[in-house]
Structure formats: C-alpha cells, structure tokens
C-alpha cells in the first residue's frame, strides 16, 4: 500500500518558490489503480516523483507498506525503492543494445554477483513476465525492432521484475493510438490485480478513467473535486 499524507513540494523560481504539490493526501490499496489527472503543469509528475521517493517533499509523509520513508536512512530508502517500487517513466529508457529479455535480466544484475541458480530463477521470472505482457515471441528483439506499444509492455514488465508492491506509471498511453492505449490500460489493470500492486498512474487520457478504481484531479498542485466520469 502507498499512502501520501499532506504532501507539499515547492521548487525555486527566481526570487520566490513555485508550489508544485499543495497539501495532497491519497491512499492506494493493493490490487487497485488510481489515476492522477490534471492540466499541464498541475503537479502530476512532481507528485509521482515524490511517491517514487525520488524527490523529498517540503512537508508531509510518504508511507510505503506502513513505513515512513522520511524516517529511513539514505541507504534504506534506496533499498526500499529497489525492492518495493516499480517505476515506468514517461520517456522510455530501454537500453538500445539489449533485447527485451535482457532489459529484464539486467534489473537483477545491478548489485552483487549472483549464483548460477539465482540467474536461472531470474531468467525464469523474466520469461514469465514477458509472457504476462504478451511478448514471449518478441523476447529476443531489441527496442528498435518493437512497436511503441510493445516497448511500453517491456517497460512495464521490467518495472515488475523485483516484485514491487507499488507500481508508478507516468503517461503510459501518451505515445499510443486509442486502441493500443486501451490495451496498455487493460494490461496494467490485470497485472495490478494479479500481482496485488498499489498502482498510481498519471494520465491525461480521460477516456480510461472509468476503468480505474479512483481518480485524483490536480489543479495548481491541489486536489480538486473529482471529475464526473462514466
Ligand atoms: N525541477 C523543477 N524546477 C522548478 N520547477 C519545476 C520543476 N519541476 C516542475 N516544476 C514546476 O512545478 C509545477 C508542476 O510541474 P509538473 O511537471 O509536476 O506538472 P505536470 O502536471 O506533470 O505537467 P505535464 O502534464 O505538462 O507533464 C510546474 O509549475 C512546473 O513548472
């Protein structure tokens, strides 16, 4: 579970500061997907970065599975991020030289060298995830040989490699046509249910909102009345 308690985040802006996130609280339960929507500049990506523990807020708490992230040492926070949080960034950051399978394998090779047995388990897990995202037949392809939707599927599978309890996804459908976008949303919903992740999804594609479990609408960094959807 992820819970944000009264988060405020400001950035320097010339002589003063701009408030990107303004007293935002939200909770995402396991197995559910909550969308963050709002106009450009309303603080969606900033809020996601706080949830990812990549940016420390000026005030407020980020609770991951009842652990207050601000109470952790830098090392503990890094470990929590590695094991408990899966992130799909807006800019696909797949490595051009690696195949889909290798993009997943590399997640486990960052760190201590592993035994042969551990490598075999990792390979099995990567294969299972590629199957889950419908890419078994494309496992040996490199990013330039995959479509935009397929690359997004690799990104999602890679974010799930370490078995995170929290999945954070930034604009997963923005580069896709409506049909491919809808199938990525279906995939995220299915994986969220199967793997019981608490999923937060930034999107400005309002068409998908009725499929999700909750929506947080931001204007100028603040939560406003939920949009009427459906
Ligand atoms: N690193 C930064 N330094 C200074 N200001 C920033 C920084 N990042 C974001 N901001 C400001 O914070 C506010 C929120 O930006 P943010 O990128 O979170 O919005 P957004 O809703 O994700 O926008 P978009 O939909 O265009 O991606 C904006 O006023 C933005 O200019």
UniProtKB/TrEMBL annotation:
Q: Which Pfam families match?
A: ABC_tran
Asked if the keyword ATP-binding belongs to this entry, the reply reads yes
| Cross-referenced Gene3D superfamilies | P-loop containing nucleotide triphosphate hydrolases (3.40.50.300)
Gene Ontology CC: one annotated term: plasma membrane
Check the record and name the SUPFAM superfamilies matching this protein.
Answer: P-loop containing nucleoside triphosphate hydrolases (SSF52540)
Q: Name one GO molecular function term.
A: ATP binding
Q: SMART domains recorded for this chain?
A: AAA
What is the name of this protein? ABC transporter ATP-binding protein
| PROSITE patterns in alphabetical order | ABC_TRANSPORTER_1, ABC_TRANSPORTER_2
Look up the domain of life of the source. Answer: Bacteria
Chain ranges of the ABC transporter domain: 2-229
The entry's keywords: ATP-binding, Nucleotide-binding, Transport
Task: Tell me which species this is from.
Answer: Galactobacter caseinivorans
